[in-house]
Amino acid sequence: MIAKWSQFVVRHRWVVIVLWAVLVLATVPLATQVTKHLTTNGFDRKNSQVAWATNAVNEIHPLPSAKPLLIEGMGRKTAEVLGAHYGASAGDFHALTPSETVFLPPASMTASHGKRFEVQLRNRHATVTEVGQLAIGKKVTHDVSKTLTQSGLVALPVLALLLMVFGSVMSIALPFIIALAGSELALAAIAIISRHMTLSVFLTDIVSFLALGVGIDYALFISTRFRQNVDAGQSIEEAVADSMSHAGRSVLYSGIAVGLAVATLLLGNNAYWRGLAMGGAVALFAVLLATHSLLPAVMGVLGRHLNWGRVRRPDFGLWSWLARVVATRPVWSMLVGLVILVPLATLAPSIRMSTPANLATMLPPTNPLRRAVAVQQRVNGPGSIAPIAVMVRLKDSKDTPAAWSALGRLTNHLKTLPNVHSVSSATGLGLSPAQLALMASDPARAPKPVSEALTNYLAPRNSHLFAVYVTAKTGPNDARTSQLVGDIDHHLPHWLPSGSRAYAGGLVPVLRDFNDLTSQRLPWIVAAALVVALVVLTAATGSLLQAVLGVLFDGLVAMATAGFLVLVSHQQWFGFQNQPLDSSITPLIFVLLFGLSMDYEVILLHRIQERVRAGVAMQEGVRQGVATTGAMITGAGMIMVVVFLALLISPLQIMKTLGIGLSFAVLADTWVVRSLLVPSATALFGKYGFWPWRPRQSSADML
Question: What residue numbers bound the domain in which 178 lies?
Answer without folding.
Answer: 1-32+167-313
